[in-house]
Amino acid sequence: MNLERVRLRVSGGGFHPFALRTSDGREYPVRHPEMVLVAPRSLAVVDRDGEIVTLDALHIVAVKNLRSKTNGTSKR
Question: For the chain, what is the mean pLDDT?
Answer without folding.
Answer: 88
